[in-house]
Specification:
Blueprint lengths: L5 E6 L2 E6 L9 H16 L5 E6 L22 H10 L4 E5 L2 E3 L1 H7 L3 E5 L3 E3 L13 H9 L1 H10 L3 E2 H7 L4 E3 L3 H15 L18 H14 L4 H15 L2 H16 L2 H15 L18 E4 L3 H12 L4 E4 L3 H21 L4 H9 L1 E4 L10 E4 L5 H14 L5 E4 L6 H5 L8 E6 L8 E5 L6 H13 L3 E5 L7 H8 L3 H7 L3 H11 L5 H8 L1 H10 L5 H8 L25 H13 L9 H22 L5 H11 L9 H8 L1 H15 L8 H7 L8
Helix pairs in contact: 1-2, 4-5, 4-9, 5-8, 5-9, 8-9, 9-10, 11-26, 12-13, 18-25, 20-25, 25-28, 28-29
Length: 690
């Protein structure tokens, strides 16, 4: 049997079914239909003694075709394929290389056996799309790996290695050499032994006698970490069904849960983010023909919190780093901080001692700028002051080799101005990492007026290499994220003066789905960051700046908008802050009142969305979805709401514009004045029209 996507060949009595649907062999209808035909033919052919399911290209089936989600599904469905595969009364073997993810792993679970190469990874990541495995994954996986391991894999969505899969029983063998030949030999051996081949659905020994109370406790702990997301809870429930129900009843319940999730707002939001992340990599003028420059070594100027975090991120991606400081004392302090951070990772089990030592060995510390001469990329991570940046880039211009990229980690400053400090502005780009840089996923790549296309291509490739989510943005004060953050915070002090407490505001944000509110976040980051930025711009925030002047800089000093017990990060309301707020309100003649959560959200998020539409209109961001990627990955915007612009679409731009006009008429403040772009969107016009 032959088709473009599925072929069947023979090696003696062993049939080899090969799926070839590049790039990731997704199980779209174009694969399912010929695969069903092939499996039915094999089931009827008694000359076949065993079956191997393999894939061409760089991977096993890496999932379903998610463009089909939410649409009427064409028959045969994956569940139909698995049912036919499971009923074949001769040994069936899935030969796994690359990744077996989602529907790909579910297909493999329909086989009697699974073998893999050592580099393979296996998982059910549907939860990251706001879904659960919809073709039996939550019911079959526990039958191989046990309830607890299945719960961990499915609720986290994190793939496991072939070695882990072998240890837990998910795969039956890890092979060296040619995978397909190894699978054929494995199938032939199983057939020769003449035994019976038990389908996964009929294996119950790993789930017999499971302690349901212990399972429920583990599931509840995971649900608490889910922060209001529906899919992790549904995944746990479906696994539980498989432990307590008849197999077919549990399978039907899994499908019902899947249908509920796939039609819900949360999954739509998460699927939007999935596609948005891929769209963000498409940059005008940087096609596939633009090759990135090779990056073998990176220099980082500044060994403070940000510079150290960047260095850690780079060596985690296998890139050696030359770390530069102005004094030996500052350098030693920075290296010691990096070592402590790696030690914490070791203590948590996320890093082995050998890996820690290897990463530390990849960081060379120096106080000599000349040691940057061999770096292919140099990232400046020094104090956020334009004169300091001028000095650094002037020095880099003298020591960097021809073709080296010079990047600034500035959060706000003009990258065009910074590029002008060099004789080669085409080699200058903004690489705005988010703190802590070794943890946060977002990387804003700031494209200056004269940045070369291959510099952007290199920045995108680097981001992927070190596990970051890149978004290319244009030059303006604060770029996308911090510019919108400033708009979000414009009403923060007014809300406090008019009657809300810091806790009221933070609670409204938590109820909306944020991991923490703006005042908790400010305390965590440090009030002095905003204080310095406002002073540089001749601005003042009377409450926050007074707190700074009183030495209340946040968690670092034990007091900010909240107070903190020694060694604790738990915010405690402080009467001193409330007294300060009430005194300033009284001095300004403001009558305080209770402010509902709905008003807090409107007066913070709607100006932020309004600023996002300005950013679109100005071309600072190429797409609304790019803004969503920035805010979800850099600022903790709730994943379940898909980012600020996706959320705005759900609420309706017309409704948001009307509320902005309401608040503008009431307060007269410019932050509420609807942009031309939001008015155009409210009228159904494109984001770039008008």
């Amino acid at each position: 049997m032959m088709s473009q996507t599925v072929t069947v060949t023979r090696d003696g009595a062993i049939a080899i079914v090969t799926i070839d649907n590049p790039p990731v062999n997704a199980l779209g209808f174009n694969v399912r239909a010929p695969l069903m035909e092939a499996l039915n033919a094999i089931a009827a052919d008694r000359s076949i003694a065993g079956v191997v399911i393999a894939c061409a290209g760089r991977t096993f089936v890496a999932g379903a075709d998610i463009t089909e989600f939410g649409k009427p599904l064409q028959s045969p469905e994956l569940r139909d394929l698995i049912a036919v595969l499971e009923a074949i009364d001769r040994p069936t073997v899935a030969a796994i290389h690359g990744t077996a993810l989602g529907g790909g792993l579910e297909l493999a679970l329909g086989c009697h056996f699974r073998i893999a190469v050592a580099s393979a990874r296996l998982g059910l990541p549907e939860v990251k799309l706001g879904l659960l495995p919809g073709a039996g994954g939550t019911i079959r996986l526990p039958r191989l790996v046990g309830a607890s391991k299945a719960l961990s894999m499915i609720v986290s969505g994190t793939p496991i290695s072939a070695g882990d899969a072998l240890a837990t029983g998910l795969v039956d063998a890890v092979v060296d050499g040619d995978l397909t030949q190894g699978a054929i030999a494995f199938a032939r051996q199983q057939a020769a032994e003449g035994g019976t081949y038990t389908a996964v659905r009929d294996r119950a020994d790993r789930i017999a006698g499971v302690d349901i109370a212990a399972f429920d406790a583990e599931a509840a702990a995971l649900a608490r970490k889910a922060r209001g997301l529906e899919a992790p809870v549904a995944c746990a429930q479906s696994i539980r069904n498989g432990l307590t129900m008849d197999f077919d009843a549990a399978l039907a319940a899994e499908r019902a849960l899947f249908k509920t999730l796939v039609s819900g707002e949360q999954s739509r939001a998460q699927r939007h983010l999935f596609f948005a992340e891929r769209e963000a990599g498409k940059v005008a003028g940087v096609g596939k023909d633009v090759a990135p420059r090779p990056i073998a070594r990176v220099g980082v100027v500044g060994a403070g919190t940000m510079g150290g975090g960047i260095a850690m991120a780079l060596v985690a991606g296998g890139i050696p780093v030359t770390l530069v400081e102005t004094s030996r004392e500052a350098l030693d302090r920075g290296l010691a901080s990096i070592a402590r951070n790696f030690d914490v990772s070791v203590s948590r089990g996320s890093l082995t001692p050998d890996a820690r030592d290897a990463r530390m060995a990849m960081i060379s510390g120096t106080t000599d700028f000349g040691d940057l001469a061999e770096s292919d990329l140099i990232i400046e991570a020094v104090f956020e002051d334009i004169d300091v940046k001028r000095e650094v880039f002037s020095r880099l211009d003298d020591v960097a080799k021809p073709g080296a990229i010079m990047a600034t980690n500035t959060s706000y400053l003009d990258v065009n101005a910074i590029a002008s400090f060099t004789r080669r502005p085409s080699d200058v780009v903004g690489l705005h990492f988010f703190s802590p840089a070794n943890v946060m996923k977002l990387l804003e790549i700031v494209r200056a007026d004269r940045t070369a296309p291959d510099v952007i291509a290199t920045a995108l490739a680097l981001a992927r290499r070190i596990g970051k989510v890149p978004v290319v943005v244009g030059v303006c004060h604060g770029f996308v994220g911090n510019r919108m953050l400033q708009a979000r915070g414009a009403e923060s002090e007014s809300l406090l003066l008019e009657g809300a407490s810091p806790r009221d505001v933070d609670r409204a944000f938590a109820e909306f789905g944020w991991p923490m509110g703006p005042f908790e976040m400010t305390d965590l980051a440090g009030l002095d960051i905003g204080f310095r930025n406002r002073k540089a711009r001749g601005q003042r925030a009377v409450i926050a700046d007074t707190l700074c002047e009183r030495g209340r800089l946040g968690q670092k000093t034990g007091k900010g908008f909240y107070r903190y017990e020694a060694g604790s990060r738990t915010p405690i309301e402080d009467p001193e802050v409330q007294t300060l707020i009430e005194d300033i309100a009284r001095q300004r003649g403001i009558t305080r009142r209770a402010i509902p959560a709905s008003e807090i959200i409107e007066r913070t998020l709607y100006p932020m969305i309004n600023e996002g539409t300005k950013i679109l209109g100005e071309g600072i961001a190429a797409r609304a979805s790019d803004i969503d990627i920035v805010w979800v990955n850099g600022y903790g915007f709730p994943i379940a709401k898909g980012g600020p612009m996706f959320y705005a679409e759900a609420v309706g731009y017309r409704a948001i514009a009307e509320r902005l006009r309401h608040w503008h008429a009431l307060t007269g403040r410019d932050v509420f004045k609807p942009s031309e772009t939001i008015d155009a969107l409210a009228s159904g016009q494109s984001a770039r029209s008008g």
